[in-house]
Amino acid sequence: SSIHQLSMTKFNKGLLFGVSAYLLWGLLPLYWKLVEDAGAYEILAHRGIWSLLLCLFLLAIRKQIKSAIAMVRSSRTLSLLFLASGLLTINWGVYIWSVTVNRVVEAALGYYITPLINVTFGVLLLREKLRPLQWTAVGLATVGVAVLTVGYGALPWIALVLSISWGGYSVIKKSLNLGALETLSVETFFAFFPNLIYLITIERNGSAEFGDGLTTSLLLFGAGAATVVPLLLFNGSTTRLPLSTVGLLQYITPTIMFFIGIFINNEDISRVKIVGFFFIWIALAFLSRDLYKSSRTLNNGVTEVL
Fold first, then answer.
1. Lowest mean pLDDT among 49-63, 153-167, 189-203, 209-223
2. The pLDDT value given to residue 2
3. What is the pTM of this model?
4. In terms of DSSP H, where are the helices of 157-209?
5. Cα(32)–Cα(226) distance, rounded to whole angstroms?
């Protein structure tokens, strides 16, 4: 009984962490909207720099700086984290830009199709075999993207760049299987000098928003916490929850973004686009069913966590 209570407490704590992480990620477009005058590049640079400083501060508190340095002694790890840093920069940059130009619905689509991209990567890169429900999900999603291409009058490139960059980033992180805080520190360190040079340049030519008004400056400074806090909450959830639960929780983020795009930003959503999204949602229902079934099989043996 006490073991059962302990596992329930662990599960509930994991659920709280997971829901909190995905809620914060879903609400991020509202945060970037507050500093949109700074423009996507300045926001991106501040996000990278303050995230790095916060990561280093947390590593120092946790006495993990030595382990982070030891981690990058391997040239394989270093090169993979360099690649991860590039993918993360692309993902953050396109995401922030999409918010500043009122294309949050298309960004939401990107995070909806990410699980389907991950399944595709599993087949192409890791030679995984697709189960029938996964085949159905990928097929439906392909139809959905085709319908959305008609709806947008072009390939929904924001969604595809976001999902492919995040999917690639996830594959690298999964293959490395290292601490979230240490790896994010290294990834943001790679981008530190380009970010710093960019910020110094715009400060000198007078086009920077940072330092102009107190509110904007504080919000740009807060971009570090807005990045690191949900990541740590997410990490706390993956160590306590089954893979299937984490997989189902991830739909919270794009759903919040979808509603922000439609009801707060008043973005255009035609009937054709709704039909496209409907195909994606049905695909995700099939994928979720498969995830739940496969995790039940796993959990009968050993509980698997991310």
1. 209-223
2. 61
3. 0.85
4. 157-176, 180-190, 192-204
5. 10
Alpha-carbon distance 129 to 61, whole Å? 43
Alpha carbon distances (Å) from 122 to 78, 83, 134, 239: 23, 18, 11, 22
- Select the more confidently predicted residue: 180 or 281: 281
Rounded to the nearest 10°, the torsion over CA 238, 240, 242, 244 is: -50
Q: Can you read off the two tokens belonging to residue 10?
A: 């662990």
Asked if residue 302 has pLDDT above 60, the reply is no
pLDDT at 306 over 50: no
Structure tokens at 118: 């991950």
**pLDDT tens digit string along 94-118?**
999 999 999 999 999 899 888 888 8
Distances from the Cα of 110 to the Cαs of 34, 98, 220, 251, 276, in angstroms? 22, 11, 25, 11, 13
User: pLDDT confidence of 7, banded at 50, 70, 90?
Assistant: low
Residues with Cβ within 8 Å of residue 68, at least 6 apart in sequence = 59, 179, 182, 185, 186
What distance in Å separates the CA atoms of residue 172 and residue 81, rounded to the nearest whole number?
Answer: 8
120 Cβ partners below 8 Å, 6+ apart?
138, 167
CB 54 within 8 A of CB 228: yes
- Whether 56 shows a pLDDT value over 80: the answer reads yes
Sign of the Cα pseudo-torsion (28, 29, 35, 38, in order): positive
pLDDT in tens, 243-262: 667 777 888 899 999 999 98
DSSP class of residue 128 equals P
Best CA proximity match to 85, nearest among 52, 130, 108:
52
**What's the sign of the alpha-carbon dihedral 251, 248, 164, 278?**
negative
Q: Is 206 left (phi over 0), alpha (psi -120 to 50) or beta?
A: left
